[in-house]
Amino acid sequence: MAESNAEDYGAFIQRFNLFPSPHSPTLPPLPLEGLTFAVKDIFDIDGYVTGFGNPDWARTHLPATSTAPTVLALLEAGATCVGKTVMDEMAYSINGENKHYGTPINPVAPDRVPGGSSSGSAVAVAAGLVDFSLGTDTAGSVRVPAAYCGIFGFRPSHDVVSTSHVIPMAQSFDTVGWFARDPATISKVGHTLLQLPGEINVEPTRFIIANDCFKYLGSLGEQISHILVQSVEDTFGSHVISHENLGNYTLSKVPISKNFISTAPESRVSTIPALGALSYALRLLQRFEFKSNHEEWLNNVKPSLGPGISERIMEALTSTDDNLDSCRKFKVDFKAALTDLLGDYGVLAIPTIPGPPPKLNLDVTALKDFRAQAFCLIAVASMSGFCQISVPLGLQNGLPVSVSLLARHGADYFLLNLVQSFYPTLKERAAATWESGL
Fold first, then answer.
1. Which residues cross the membrane (predicted)?
2. Please, what is the end-to-end C-alpha distance for the chain in angstroms?
3. pLDDT per residue as tens digits for the range 107-117
4. Is 188 a catalytic residue?
């Protein structure tokens, strides 16, 4: 059972301390020295059961006999781990509600969900309980809770941060991501974990605003676009700014997308049919891989699962391998098209989510359209494998506002450095906009 209470916002499932190795005071300080962090209960830590968000999973698995390399790297860099955090069951939700362990309290919007599946990790950072935290992001599980809780959330390029000793959800999309309250910390963690050559600190050659994606947000989308344009002009100059209809671009550059539109339920909900098709292909692949990973355990144990989770897992278990080759081609072709669009040092701006965080305890059916629209945005980085950072823009009418920036696969340092360089301007512009009521 979770060892949580109101003081920790229900973020932790287990508290403990893992200290870094002793460091000589005569040596330069370690990069993460003095910082604390928490880890999602999907990472192995030697001597502790990895619970995967479900008590039946915890009951039927032995304690881990080694620690995930990502956790070890953070300890070696001088940080102290203070515990494991609550997550959505089997990482199969972006909501953040857990019927077994309770729903972590969103510190900036207590009547709203915190977002999942890395719910506790996001809440621990947003509440100031730790300096940063680890989560995983397969289909939005770092980006969404970061946006809901008003903090930074980074999904790295696929396969550049080790997922060893992390329970798989769907390996073609699984990434280890992290949360922080400021761009300096999110960058420091990145420099510890990213397995990439060199540090790229160059200005963007293109800054592309996806106009059709911002239309999900109505007038708020127009405000965010304006804030972005002003901030980029102030920092890098107006010559780098361009606008794109991402749905039309996908239709023209990825012909296979047309094959999915008629069959994708998301295309009927989305105002951007091509991104609905992209989302549909993502979910088909995700279901198949999840089934391959966990079907045997699910059928043998028949675990108790919460609402929404049980339906999605049943969909996965009854899924077939029809259309998988087409989905994989869609994924490859979309990555190539997006690479052409951005080039080496282009940036794509989209909303992280299609609106404010939903209220707590909403019926599953009430969330259906919102979830479908969210997946249209989430699918862009998941299907391309690109890196993405959700950037907080403060509160408007008491609710968190965010924007997401994406860069090509492998441009993670570039994206982290870019956010550090222009976030002060972005934050100031956003604050002035919300205060003016424009």
1. none
2. 47
3. 999 999 999 99
4. no
